[in-house]
Amino acid sequence: MTLTFQLNWEPNGFQSPYFLAREEGFYEDEGLEVQFVEGHGSPYAAERAATGDADIALAGASAVLAKQSEGFDPLAVAAVTQKTPAAVYTLRDVFGGKLSEPEQLAGRTVAPSATKTRILTAQLLENAGIRDEVDLLQVDPHTHHRVQHKVIDGTVDAAVGVVTNGIEIGREHDRTPDELPIGDSLEIYGMTLVTSPAFADEQPETVRSFLRATARGWAVATRDPDRAVDVLVGRNATLERNREIERLKFETAAHRLQFTPYVREHGWGAQDPARWRRLGETLSETALLEGEIDPDTVWTGEFRPADEPIVAEYAERVRPTAD
Asked: Could you tell me which residues are beta bridge partners of residue 110?
């Protein structure tokens, strides 16, 4: 069966396990021919899945709930990363010292790269008790590249993007970066695999097969990140010059964003209803949502092949020393 897989963005290190799964024949083993489609952000990917324009999509959990508030019906069938990849980053010579705690942002100007990362940053500052002390700028329509430039030239004290953004500009400009991962402070989901209720109902075994093959891809990539990046660069040769960064993106996702006590107990792709509700509460306190949401109906564990060893025993098989 041919299946369309809508990515959230252009190919990069965060997505390397999916390309590796295809290269290694894991999807083919399940009788699937997976066609990858480059994306334009998580909201776009979630909407494409919800409307049936893509069979399965890779999208951030906040985008899934935002699309539900617009009247769409996306259905998350697996949580790939348990933590958001969002991060506040800066250059040490710009910030005037090492950034290691949210409280250090008091009295500073911070530029976010997207509406959702701005919301998460606002919640981070609120939890730290300094929301009113930080000049959190509105989102620039030219997104993350422009906020990176603002950090580089010192126009702002820090920016918000995803983990490794700071490291990337630090290496490029031979300056010392610091990153403050928001997922270390907020229990907010990162990336999820999304489909439509109709596709899940009509093709339940296809969804299970896709998830099983994808879990294998993540496992092999985690054990052999060089192989995963090789496949990614083979797909997009322009990434060769950023090979180290692409590997860092994947390893950050695999180790810092994916493994949590919940995953070690419940396995790969498992979803925690409490975490979905917490995300819903966070988004509901902002102006992002256009209507009502129900976090309990936007996800399901029905199609995750929890009886498969690679899924159920994922942490032990991939990361035996996970703490």
From this structure: 136, 158
Render pLDDT for 298-307 as a digit per residue (tens, 0 to 9). 999 999 999 9
Is the CB of residue 197 less than 8 Å from the CB of residue 218? no
Nearest Cα neighbor of 162 from 84, 262, 93 is 84
Query: Where are any strands of DSSP class E within 22-108?
Result: 33-37, 56-60, 75-79, 86-91
Fold classification of 2-83+189-318 is: D-Maltodextrin-Binding Protein; domain 2 (3.40.190)
Same fold, 2-83+189-318 and 86-184: yes
Q: Where are the domains of the chain?
A: 2-83+189-318, 86-184
Q: Which of 141, 168, 173 is nearest to 154 (CA)?
A: 173
Whole-number CA gyration radius for the chain: 19
For residues 223 and 13, give the distance between their C-alpha atoms in angstroms, rounded to a whole number.
Answer: 15
| CA–CA distance, 235 with 19 (Å, rounded to integer) | 8
User: Tens digits of per-residue pLDDT, 34-44?
Assistant: 999 998 888 99
Alpha helices in 10-60, H assignment, sequence order: 16-23, 26-29, 42-50
Chain-centroid distance of CA 43 in Å reads 12
**pLDDT value, residue 323:** 45
Q: Residue 160 forms beta bridges with which residues?
A: 88, 112
User: What kind of architecture, by CATH, is found in domain 86-184?
Assistant: 3-Layer(aba) Sandwich (3.40)
Interval 308-322: pLDDT, tens:
999 999 988 887 544
Q: Give pLDDT, residue 103.
A: 97
